Amino acid sequence: MTEPAPSYSRKRVLYELYYGFRPNKPTYTPDEYPNLAGRTAIVTGANTGIGLHVAKILYEKNCDVIIVVRTAAKGEKAREEILAATPDSKGSVIIADGCDFLDLNTVKPTADKVKTALGDKPLNVIIHNAGLMARTNTGISKQGVEAMFQVNAMGPQLLQHFLNPLFLKKDSDLKRIVWVSSASHLLAFREYGINWENPGFEGVDAGQRPAAAALYGQSKAANIMQAKAWSTKNKTIVDEIECVSVSCYPGNLNTDLARDWNPLLRKIGGYLFWDVKYGAYTELYGALSPALTTKNQGAYVVPFGEVHDPREDIEAALTNGTDLKLWDLIEEKISKYF
Ligand SMILES: NC(=O)c1ccc[n+]([C@@H]2O[C@H](COP(=O)([O-])OP(=O)(O)OC[C@H]3O[C@@H](n4cnc5c(N)ncnc54)[C@H](OP(=O)(O)O)[C@@H]3O)[C@@H](O)[C@H]2O)c1
């Protein structure tokens, strides 16, 4: 058992929530990115929103991009859009489809597609971008787990399990993982953001579950802990290959994320939120910025490319072993799908 969670400042929570609406301008943008010819990146959820924009920029920089998507047709449409945006790129776009984190059985077959697509090339960057922010607390996965916990936290950890042997190799000087979190982690449960007894609310009727915002927040608190825990779990090789694993809150952006929200709220969001490209800059800061080194393992990147501390208890979780406890808890649940 880890120590009880330290308290956190409500004032800071409010400040960080506000910051997402009025962040500093990005300082690390595509003009500063290196040429990525010969590099390979995986972006999950790249058929739309931030992931699609990230894939476009990577391809523009001549990267070989593997887009992990649920639906083949959406993947093909996205691929065409990415190719058309930069007709003279020297990179490539390969689709690994069929990955639906609502059913953990689909993850291994998709990882096999990634392995085939990669061949013997180095794998440089992994961006765990796919995510679900449901309007209601009723969503449930094929495995009977609350939908956002499974899609946002369990699914990426399972995919990472299959990517580890492809990624953890001394074959390149660029090795990054970005676990896409959110400022919504600030709204997560009191004890390190997690409902420890039953984070997936398995067997709990929707009527007895907390509000959707707390469930989304929990899954995004998990992403912050996963970024650090993964680097600790693989410390020897991670140090050797100088890999950096960070989480990020991409910003408040106009994407499909709020697709099932009330149209009025979506309209208001349209005025307050930022263009999707800024979210891509935040994710790509995590993936490419030379300012991040192995000293930044588990850093929490905020819009549009700077490091802040997460909520105080979750920050404490990154050094007192709570992150590893969560990693192990999820690992136990997903291990039957290895
Ligand atoms: N937009 C924001 O303001 C904001 C703020 C903070 C954090 N984020 C985070 O940023 C990431 C990208 O969000 P976005 O705004 O670009 O959202 P989006 O436009 O809704 O895109 C989400 C992506 O995730 C995929 N996805 C959803 N459910 C999935 C599942 N069950 N299995 C596999 N993939 C699934 C979607 O695929 P389908 O199209 O097939 O559904 C889509 O490709 C998410 O992790 C989100 O939590 C976004």
Automatic annotation (TrEMBL):
It comes from the Eukaryota. The keyword NADP applies. SUPFAM superfamilies: NAD(P)-binding Rossmann-fold domains. Keywords: NADP, Oxidoreductase. Pfam families: adh_short (PF00106). Belongs to the short-chain dehydrogenases/reductases (SDR) family. This is NAD(P)-binding protein. It comes from Saccharomyces uvarum (Yeast).
